[in-house]
Specification:
alpha+beta; Gyrase A, domain 2; four-stranded antiparallel beta sheet; two-stranded parallel sheet; 8 helices; 46% helix; elongated
Length: 208
């Protein structure tokens, strides 16, 4: 059994200036003010749009993100409707195969401290799930049948594509104090990755 931490990868190469310019062109079409476009007009224009909640313009740009998280968190991610998903399938992935290291991979719950009784209970439960999963496979069950004993902590690889408006909604909803702790953990990582590639106008819009 392999224990790993969650992670986030922005798959698309994001050009902050190019995104702003595209959104400005789309937004100015509403007012037929394309003639006011200059080399440096995009940032201020998009900032005004966001302040005025003219959010539909943000739907003209989408990008794709890979989330490594547990199955429980992924169940919350896919509830967001205005997005496309491709997720690792426990029906077709047989974790006894060498391709998967002949072991299951689970996400470490950050709120459990190694060495505590609670962490030991979780670790034992994960090991038992792995053992019984392999036992079911050895007894002739298919991967899609044996997956019945796999835990919520099982690692999953899920790719999500959404537009800027939906990403904003996603971050606000899943980063709120009411969100599940591991969901919020993933949003913190996502924000950190966004800050590396997006400038202040788009980043503020996505994370406020």
């Amino acid at each position: 059994m392999l224990i790993v931490n969650p992670s986030v990868e922005i798959i698309d190469k994001l050009d902050n200036d190019a995104i702003l310019k595209k959104l400005e062109l789309c937004g100015r079409n509403c007012y037929k003010s394309e003639g006011r476009i200059t080399a440096d007009s995009a940032a201020d224009f998009i900032r005004r749009l966001t302040l005025n909640r003219h959010e539909s313009v943000m739907e003209h740009f989408s990008f794709t993100v890979r989330f490594i998280c547990d199955r429980g968190v992924s169940h919350e991610i896919v509830r967001h409707r205005l997005a496309s998903y491709s997720q690792e399938s426990t029906r077709y992935c047989n974790y006894a195969k060498e391709d998967f290291g002949s072991e299951i991979t689970v996400i470490k719950p950050f709120y459990l401290t190694e060495g505590t009784d609670a962490y030991k209970h979780w670790e034992i439960a994960m090991a038992c799930a792995e053992t019984e999963y392999f036992n079911m496979l050895q007894d002739g069950c298919t991967a899609q049948e044996a997956r019945a004993v796999l835990p919520n902590s099982l690692k999953t690889d899920i790719i999500m594509t959404a537009n800027l408006r939906e990403w904003r909604h996603f971050i606000i909803m899943r980063g709120s104090p009411a969100a599940h702790p591991q969901m919020r953990e993933l949003i913190v990582i996502f924000r950190q990755e966004l800050s590396k590639v997006l400038g202040p106008v788009l980043f503020d819009y996505l994370t406020r």
